[in-house]
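User: tokens in, sequence out, please.
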């Protein structure tokens, strides 16, 4: 197998390891990915950075530069596109903190390995280790800048509708090229800064940009939860809050999780947060009830009075739902005139009673119109309970929708729950 093939195989393995940890996010949170990325950062500093490879047709390059750095850039972009700004910010600062910690450990390990009492089963070049620690300490600031810039750029290219793969590739190409110039100039010293060295670095990273962009695109296809659309695409001015890490970032994330018409949570919240609520109840060995509520009056209002009145009915129903549920329950607009009500730690019988009370409250609060009779808000509901109907969000939604269709066939004000 050629050197290039081995290099691509190693790049694929590193990225696949990170994507495997990312696939566990819904069940275990972001901890596995942070752990894997931290371990790979240590591998970069103590193994890959001191290792030099003769890149075919390009020249000598350090593996830490063409593999670990490019892998970190790519993983941050994937996390941003799937998990949002908050997750990407957490990963950026985790990598920066781990890199800084390893840089500080470098001199201590150098002194320890230099002691005459130490016997090394594997030979480690102390001078190379000490040099790597100094270089990593200088490159830590460039790491934060590069990771943050990758989020800004991939967001900008997505807004231009340049396609997922092209956005990833251009981001990797631009960030890695600028990083190479700055790293050679400031970390290695101006006395060895040459055009040939910069060209070799940019050529090697360009090839790896093609590979990692392809891997990232494929992972987003396999692991996607957003049907191919970017999870977070913001105007550039608002996205600059990512670099400052101020409270505004939290406000932006909160806005992205709200439906603008009804002001309740949206489907992004359903996919991103509700699985964690289910997992928490499972850990505490508690049931979780999920109620799908369809407001039938919205369609009638749209046909009779126009969409503006239909929107009023929808917003009114959302407010009634929020007032009818408990403090820890969650109201989410799924799509159209359908809402998801999540009741953590609630048995099926209690959820059935709560759902019936919600429908009665909706019917008891008609909407007054300037002209004509008030619009009575009628609805129906389907109920699913974990773990009886499944232990994940997908299976619960399927069951709840099936029972909602049965309730819609039976008429307004009906709730269909556990069968048999």
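Assistant: Sequence out:
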């Amino acid at each position: 197998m050629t050197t290039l093939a081995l290099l691509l195989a190693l790049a694929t393995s590193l990225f696949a390891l990170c994507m495997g940890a990312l696939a566990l996010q819904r069940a275990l949170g972001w901890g596995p990915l942070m752990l894997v990325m931290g371990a790979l950062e240590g591998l970069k500093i103590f193994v890959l950075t001191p290792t030099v490879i003769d890149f075919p047709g390009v020249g000598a390059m350090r593996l830490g530069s063409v593999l670990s750095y490019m892998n970190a850039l790519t993983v941050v972009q994937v996390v941003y596109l799937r998990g949002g700004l908050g997750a990407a910010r957490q990963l950026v600062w985790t990598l920066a903190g781990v890199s800084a910690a390893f840089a500080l450990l470098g001199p201590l390990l150098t002194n320890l390995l230099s002691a005459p009492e130490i016997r090394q089963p594997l030979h480690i070049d102390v001078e190379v280790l000490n040099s790597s620690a100094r270089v990593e300490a200088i490159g830590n600031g460039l790491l934060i800048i590069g990771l943050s810039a990758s989020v800004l750029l991939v967001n900008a290219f997505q807004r231009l509708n340049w396609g997922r793969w092209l956005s990833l590739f251009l981001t990797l190409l631009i960030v890695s090229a600028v990083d190479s110039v700055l790293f050679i100039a400031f970390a290695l010293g101006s006395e060895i800064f040459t055009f040939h060295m910069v060209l070799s670095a940019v050529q090697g990273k360009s090839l790896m940009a093609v590979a990692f962009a392809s891997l990232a695109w494929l992972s987003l296809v396999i692991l996607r939860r957003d049907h191919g659309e970017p999870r977070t695409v913001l105007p550039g001015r608002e996205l600059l809050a990512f670099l400052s890490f101020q409270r505004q970032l939290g406000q932006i994330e909160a806005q992205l999780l709200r439906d603008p018409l009804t002001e309740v949570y949206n489907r992004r919240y359903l996919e991103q947060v509700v699985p964690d609520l289910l997992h928490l109840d499972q850990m505490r060995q508690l049931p979780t009830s999920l109620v799908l509520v369809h407001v039938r009056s919205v369609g009638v209002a749209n046909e009779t009075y126009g969409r503006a009145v239909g929107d009023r009915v929808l917003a009114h129903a959302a407010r009634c739902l929020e007032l009818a549920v408990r403090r820890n329950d969650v109201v989410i607009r799924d799509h159209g005139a359908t809402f998801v009500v999540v009741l953590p730690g609630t048995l099926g019988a209690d959820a059935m009673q709560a759902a019936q009370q919600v429908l009665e409250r909706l019917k008891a609060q008609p909407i007054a119109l300037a002209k004509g009779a008030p619009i009575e808000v009628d609805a129906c509901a389907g109920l699913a309970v974990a773990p009886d109907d499944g232990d994940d969000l997908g299976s619960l939604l399927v069951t709840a929708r099936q029972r909602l269709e049965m309730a819609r066939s039976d008429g307004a004000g009906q709730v269909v729950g556990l069968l048999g």
